[in-house]
Amino acid sequence: MDFLENKWIVTEIIRPLLDIGILSFLIYQVYKILVQTRAVQLIRGAFVVGIFYLAAFTLKLDTILWIMNRLATVLVIIIAVVFQPELRSIFIRVGRGEWFRVSHNAKSFHVDTVINAVEVLSNRKRGALIVFPRRVGIKNIIETGTKINAEISSSLILTIFGHDTPLHDGAIIIQNGRIISAGCFLPLSEQVDIRRSFGTRHRAALGIAEDTDSVTLVVSEETGALSLSYDANLYYDLGTKVLKKRLTRLLNFPDHEEDEMEAIEDEI
């Protein structure tokens, strides 16, 4: 009798709850990926088409149903071609295997040093691109520049970007507290709805944010605005206080709970 009761509990209660829990987790993770890319437009479009199909089915519009059924395969191919960058980004994020990671070890990034340098560059309206790789390697991008492998310092950053040196047009890569490479070429964004006022630096910052999980700091040469790009998004014209706290949090710096709450309030 006990065996039958236990079997009933597993079959009728635990298994359905486990099924719903796993499915909910997967849907939530896919949603987090979609909202960080332009693929969310794909979902909206599919929703509109689904409503249109449901209306045609309910009203028994046979001609429209026949056309939509014949075009279904073609539409899938068209969607795959048009949204190829977004779909690639989704599979890259899934391949990182970050879903089950709870915490990450803090890394030694000299945020204050970088902020001090970009403040000077901003006042001088000198453009700059500074990339902070996280878990996804960018060796192919590092190799496009000049290897430096020097300890990070404000003076070195200002030397690279503050004058018309051969390296000032590219990006510098900062990893483990060192400037690994300078003058690196970044992939340009493939988004079509990006602001027309954004120049090559902002498009490059957004491009690497679409392909990797790197965090990129941008100084606008036209306005001096400080921006961050990550998770396929660009956050334009941030104040130095917000910039420092957000960059610190993104790079897994241990910080006081009070400071973290202030950073969240500033971002809101």
In short:
This protein has helices at 2-34, 40-58, 62-82, 84-95, 111-124, 139-142, 154-161, 200-211, 240-250, 257-267; strands spanning 128-132, 146-151, 171-175, 178-184, 215-219, 226-230, 233-235. By secondary structure, the chain is an alpha+beta fold. Mean pLDDT is 78; it is low at 102-109 and 254-268.
Would you write up a description of this structure?
By secondary structure, this protein is α+β, with helices and mostly antiparallel strands. The protein folds into 2 domains: 2-95, no CATH class; 111-267, YojJ-like (1 (3-Layer(aba) Sandwich). The protein is built from 10 helices and 7 strands. A 7-stranded mixed beta sheet has the order 2-4-3-1-5-6-7, sandwiched between helices. The radius of gyration is 24 Å and the shape is elongated.
* Secondary structure category: alpha+beta
What Rg is obtained from the alpha carbons, in whole angstroms? Answer: 24 Å
Q: What distance lies between the first and last C-alpha atoms, to the nearest angstrom? A: 57 Å
- Residues in β-strands, percent: 5-15%
- Sheet having the most strands: 7 strands, mixed
Q: Count the E strands.
A: 7
Assign the CATH superfamily of the largest domain: DNA integrity scanning protein, DisA, N-terminal domain
Strand arrangement, largest sheet? 2-4-3-1-5-6-7
DSSP summary: helix tally: 10
Shape: elongated
- CATH fold-level topology of the largest domain: YojJ-like (1
CATH class wording of the largest domain? Alpha Beta
CATH architecture of the largest domain: 3-Layer(aba) Sandwich
Number of domains: 2
Given as residue ranges, the uncertain stretches (5+ residues, pLDDT < 50) are 102-109, 254-268
The H-and-E topology, N to C, reads as HHHHHEHEHEEHEEEHH
Helix content: 40-55%
Mean pLDDT: 78
